[in-house]
Specification:
Length: 227
C-alpha cells in the first residue's frame, strides 16, 4: 500500500532522512519510534506530500507522491493524517469540521456529507457535541474529532504523528482505543508514537529511526521480546 524506497531529504545542508526504505502492506500497522528530532514526523509527512524529499520514491497504492502530475489534495484525502495538535478548524463547528473537505474535495452533497459525519461522530462517541466548536472540547475529544474528520474521506491509509503527545494523561486511552479499533478493523496505518503498549497490541512492525536512518524494522514480539 505504501512503498518508501531510498528516500533522502535535506534541510539546507542538514540531512534529515538518510536513504530510508520500508513499506506498509494493506492492513498493516507500522509504529515509528526513535529519539526526538530523528526525522519520524518528517518521514510520515513525506508520505502525503506535506514535506518534499530530494531523493528516492514513495508510492501510495501505486500513485507516486513525488510525481508533479499527482493530484495532491486527492492524495491527502486518501491518506488521512492526524497531528499532535489536532489542527481542527477553530471557526467551524465539529459537524462542519467533518463535512467541509467531503464537500470541497470529494464533491459530496451536503446531505451525504452530514450523514457520514454523524455516523463517524457516533462512532467516536461525540454525537452530542456536533454543534460545538473545537475549543469547547477537551484535547482527547478534539483528537477523536480529528480522527473522525480523516475517516470521513474514506481513506485507504491513515498517518498519525504523535496523536497522544499533547494530551493530558487521562485522555490518552480514549484516543488510543479509537486507534486500536481502527487497526483491528484492518486500516493501513503508520503511527509515530511513544505509546509502546499500543505498539505491542496492534503493530505489525516497529520501525526505529535514529538521526534520519531506519536502524530497526521488525515485528513487535522481536522488538520488545516476548515477556
Ligand atoms: P521527530 O519527528 O523525530 O521529532 P522531525 O521529523 O520533526 O523529528 O525533525 C527532524 C529534524 O529536522 C529535527 O532536527 C528538526 O529540527 C529538523 N527540522 C524539521 N523541520 C525543519 C525545517 N522546516 N527546517 C529545518 N530543519 C527542520
Ligand atoms: P513535529 O515533530 O510534531 O512535526 P516540530 O516541533 O518538530 O513538530 O516542528 C514544528 C514545525 O517547525 C514544523 O513545521 C517543522 O517543519 C518546523 N521546524 C522544526 N524544526 C525546525 C528547524 N530547526 N528549523 C526550521 N523549522 C523547523
Amino acid at each position: 500500500m505504501i512503498e518508501i524506497v531510498n528516500v533522502s531529504k535535506w534541510y539546507g545542508n542538514f540531512q534529515v532522512l538518510k536513504d530510508c526504505t520500508t513499506s506498509v502492506a494493506k492492513g498493516e500497522v507500522v509504529v515509528i519510534c526513535g529519539p526526538s528530532g530523528s526525522g519520524k514526523s518528517t518521514l510520515i509527512k513525506c508520505v502525503n506530500a506535506l514535506e518534499e524529499f530530494q531523493q528516492g520514491s514513495i508510492t501510495v497504492d501505486g500513485t507516486s507522491v513525488g510525481d508533479p502530475r499527482t493530484d495532491l489534495p486527492e492524495l491527502r484525502a486518501r491518506v488521512g493524517m492526524v497531528f499532535q495538535n489536532f489542527e481542527l478548524f477553530p471557526h467551524l463547528s465539529i459537524l462542519d469540521n467533518l463535512t467541509i473537505a467531503q464537500e470541497k474535495v470529494l464533491g459530496r452533497k451536503r446531505d451525504a456529507a452530514v450523514k457520514k459525519a454523524e455516523q463517524l461522530l457516533e462512532r467516536v462517541g461525540l454525537s452530542a457535541h456536533a454543534k460545538k466548536y473545537p475549543l469547547q472540547l477537551s484535547g482527547g475529544q478534539q483528537q477523536r474529532v480529528a480522527i473522525a474528520r480523516a475517516l470521513a474521506m474514506d481513506p485507504i491509509a491513515m498517518l498519525f504523528d504523535e496523536p497522544t503527545s499533547a494530551l493530558d494523561p487521562e485522555m490518552v486511552s480514549e484516543v488510543l482505543d479509537v486507534m486500536v479499533t481502527l487497526a483491528r478493523e484492518g486500516m493501513t496505518m503508520m503511527c509515530v508514537t511513544h505509546e509502546m503498549g499500543f505498539a505491542r497490541q496492534v503493530a505489525s512492525r516497529v520501525i526505529f529511526i535514529d538521526r534520519g536512518e531506519i536502524v530497526d524494522d521488525r515485528p513487535p514480539e522481536q522488538f520488545f521480546g516476548n515477556e
